[in-house]
Automatic annotation (TrEMBL):
Species in which this protein is naturally found: Sphingopyxis fribergensis
Keyword field contains Acetylation: no
Keywords: Hydrolase, Plasmid, Protease, Serine protease
Pfam annotation, one family: Peptidase_S8
Active site: 138, 172, 357
Gene3D superfamilies referenced in this protein's UniProt entry, alphabetically: Peptidase S8/S53 domain
InterPro entries according to UniProt: Peptidase_S8/S53_dom, Peptidase_S8/S53_dom_sf, Peptidase_S8_subtilisin-like, Peptidase_S8_subtilisin-rel
Residues annotated as domain Peptidase S8/S53: 129-408
CDD domains tied to this protein: Peptidases_S8_S53
GO terms of molecular function: serine-type endopeptidase activity
Gene Ontology biological process terms, A to Z: proteolysis
Protein name: Subtilisin-like serine protease
Amino acid sequence: MPSEAVLGQELLDERRTETRRYKLRFPTREALEASLAIEAVGGAVAVALPERRVISLDVPAAQVSFMAESFEAARQHYGAEIVEDYRYSLEQLDFYNPLAFAPEGEAQQSLDDVIEAIGAPQAWSHSRGEGVVIAIVDTGIDGLRPEFPHYKRHPRSWAANGEDPWTDWQGHGSMCAAIAAGTRSQGGEFDGVAPDAMIMSCRTHFYDTELAAIYDELTSLAREGATVIASNSFGVQSGSPPPVPADSDFIPALDDAIAAGVIVCFSAGNYHHLAGGTPDGHEPNSIWLHKGRSDLLTVGAAKPDGSMWYYSSRGPGQFPGQPLTSPKPDLVGITPPFGRVVYGSNVSVLKDGWGTSGCCPQAAGLIALLQSKRHAEDEPPLSRDQLFDVIRKSSVSLGHHGHSQGAGRLDCEAAVNRI
């Protein structure tokens, strides 16, 4: 039977689906602090960003009209600007659908096979990720899974007010964490790419303000001297170019984190078929928004046989040729059909693989191996540009157009041997 804590978390998650999230931006920090009494009249503060002069409120759907008076008071008395908090989509296939999962007996390959195919075990003689923090910006991580023992959990793991980062509201975040840095050391079923890396769970519902708060925390860690890698598997689920989100705090926070030295990986997206692309086609473009930036690594998805997954988003990115962009994806990971992997509290078999979501943490784990090797040799960490150059140049071409595969399939052994 689920514990009371688990049941309470499930109720919280259910309540989240019945709320609206609003962002309130104030002219000064003092105005923000004075306004927090608004919580007493129907809204619960989910995130506070005092340095950015922003709070976000969860408002039960039934109370939205009631809150109009309170919002108007916030405008008049505190100068607040009020907008609905932008929400990104979980980078998923149809993981909410039970038909996306298959019985254990239908498994063709598992995470072990993927780890072997990308050369991670061969790299472990040089490095296993020690001394590096991998932040999993996702749906949380199931702390009951033995792949995530307490000694691997970063003490500054993050969740919105009232939530626990070591619970997973969907299952997806546990999958990404296991791929990047799960361990068998305490009875886990799988090792990830970097099994000795520290894991920082950053549990989010993908609201702009939550992502800003997470990246502000990652910035602080990096400025304090931590080696931080962020794995992100969310985006905008669309077959056509989405508009740039207005009034974003996440993008400025992302800028700050990258400037502070956080190495950022993003899944390319699972939108190629939504854009009308054929499985073997390298167009049209379906990599959206910030995933085209040159200062982050964008990762697509191939099958173990080297063919591209039908859904893996193709480049070159939404804003090709603009300043600070580069052709995308940078590379691909691999994910098997009917692949067996941690998903939430269970080990499950996913018919259509793990999406680009399951490939992004492979790249994050590889970066952890590279930086950890530098630590072990008493050498300074590689710069972002050095890391990306090593990873691209050591990747194995699968024979596809660059808009599909980038530089090719990542190779942990070759990358570690290159530095």
